[in-house]
């Protein structure tokens, strides 16, 4: 539509028979303000397929016995428009039954970025064909999620499992105690004052006009490690380390020589001053930002 | 934060490959105009307010 030379190409539905489930989770007070989300797992109970239906399917489509289950986060925006973000997608066998786990950590990360966090978490689960095309099987029709256990034996409602760390134990402690002796091996991660003296640097002489120096701060100390390694989610995850999680820029006035004459100029150097130190997993992916 | 990192960042921001040669005489006759100082102060205030998040 944004091209100057466009032709409308009409499409038609090839397949429109995915079964969709909308899950709603009330999240109020589920995540304490001083906690860090490590992993969120959605557990759905897969109903055993009827034996007769399985036999019929094997006869008709002997080579395909899987369906694709996709979990999306549903965001109802302020203007009423719906937006979905892909969270997890995997193949499920029609012969399986019981609890199936999906990693929905990213959905919680998105939900936490909302301006109105009191709204519930909406997850859309769809079951689709593994492949499209004339020879596609109908295996997806045999994958169903239920809220009742097999034979009505107890509830099997969708479950959201939140694994968190209490930052009062596993986080950084703010600024280091200036009264205490220099940071020792076991000191908990903190932000320590570090003055950078620009006047004392030979190269800055006659070049850097402002500032004469600045408080850069640095992150020192160590972070408490959880008892169980988080290998379930990220197998290559390293230990928790004390890092600069928020930084700010440093403006400077420098002297620039142009046409044989020196003139002052303002320049801003990014990430020069540490604002906040945090404990973070080494190698963990940076959470995606929610697009406006 | 090391001295080399500050120098490297400064050279990068100014698109320079090496430290410029400026003598004391250049510095002595240099007066920072009010608008340059105002720009510096505004950036200073903004950097105190806005933090960038990230590892």
Quick structural summary:
The complex is a heterodimer of chains A (292) and B (55). Helices cover 8% and strands 42% of the residues of chain A. Chain A is mainly beta and 292 residues long.
Characterise the protein shown here.
The complex is a heterodimer of chains A (292) and B (55). Chain A has 292 residues and is mostly beta strands. Chain A is built from 3 helices and 15 strands. Chain B has 3 helices and 1 strand, in the order αααβ. The radius of gyration of chain B is 15 Å and the shape is flat. The interface between A and B is large, with 43 and 33 residues. Strand 14 of chain A pairs antiparallel with strand 1 of chain B.
The first-to-last residue Cα distance of chain B is 15 Å
User: What class would the helix/strand composition of chain A place it in?
Assistant: mainly beta
The biggest sheet of chain B amounts to: none
The profile of the biggest β sheet of chain A is: 4 strands, antiparallel
Low-pLDDT stretches of chain B are none
- Apparent shape of chain B: flat
What letter string, H or E per element, gives the SSE order of chain B? HHHE
Strand content of chain A: 35-45%
Give the oligomeric state of the chains in this entry, treating copies of one chain as homo and distinct chains as hetero: heterodimer
**Helical coverage of chain A, percent range:** under 10%
The count of helical stretches of chain B stands at 3
Distance between the amino and carboxyl termini of chain A: 22 Å
**Strands of chain B, count:** 1
Shape verdict of chain A: elongated
* Sheet with most strands: strand arrangement of chain A: 1-6-3-4
What is the average per-residue confidence, as pLDDT of chain A, rounded to a whole number? 83
């Amino acid at each position: 539509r944004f091209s100057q030379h466009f032709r409308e190409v009409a499409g038609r539905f090839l397949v429109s028979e995915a079964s969709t489930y909308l899950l709603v989770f009330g999240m109020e007070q589920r995540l304490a303000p001083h906690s860090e989300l490590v992993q969120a797992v959605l557990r759905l109970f897969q109903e055993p397929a009827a034996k007769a239906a399985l036999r019929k399917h094997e006869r008709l489509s002997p080579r395909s016995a899987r369906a694709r289950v996709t979990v999306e986060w549903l965001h109802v925006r302020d203007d009423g428009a719906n937006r979905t973000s892909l969270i997890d997608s995997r193949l499920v066998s029609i012969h399986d039954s019981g609890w199936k786990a999906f990693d929905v950590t990213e959905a919680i990360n998105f939900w936490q970025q909302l301006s109105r966090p009191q709204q519930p978490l909406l997850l859309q689960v769809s079951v689709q064909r593994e492949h499209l095309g004339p020879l596609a099987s109908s295996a997806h029709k045999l994958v169903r999620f239920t809220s009742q256990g097999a034979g009505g034996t107890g509830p099997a409602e969708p479950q959201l499992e939140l694994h968190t760390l209490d930052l009062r134990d596993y986080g950084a402690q703010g600024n280091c105690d200036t009264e205490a002796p220099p940071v020792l091996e076991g000191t908990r991660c903190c932000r320590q004052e570090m003055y950078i003296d620009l006047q004392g640097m030979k190269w800055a002489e006659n070049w850097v006009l402002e500032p004469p120096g600045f408080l850069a701060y640095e992150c020192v100390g160590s972070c408490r490690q959880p008892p169980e390694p988080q290998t379930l989610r990220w197998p290559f995850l390293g230990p928790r380390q004390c890092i600069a999680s928020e930084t700010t820029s440093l403006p400077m006035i420098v002297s620039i020589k142009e046409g044989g004459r020196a003139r002052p100029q303002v320049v801003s150097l990014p990430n020069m001053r540490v604002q906040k130190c945090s404990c973070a997993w080494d190698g963990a992916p940076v959470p995606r930002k929610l697009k406006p | 934060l090391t001295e080399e990192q500050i120098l490297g960042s400064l050279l990068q921001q100014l698109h320079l490959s090496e430290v410029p040669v400026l003598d004391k005489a250049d510095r002595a006759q240099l007066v920072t105009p009010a608008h340059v100082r105002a720009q510096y102060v505004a950036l200073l205030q903004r950097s105190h307010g806005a933090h960038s998040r990230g590892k």
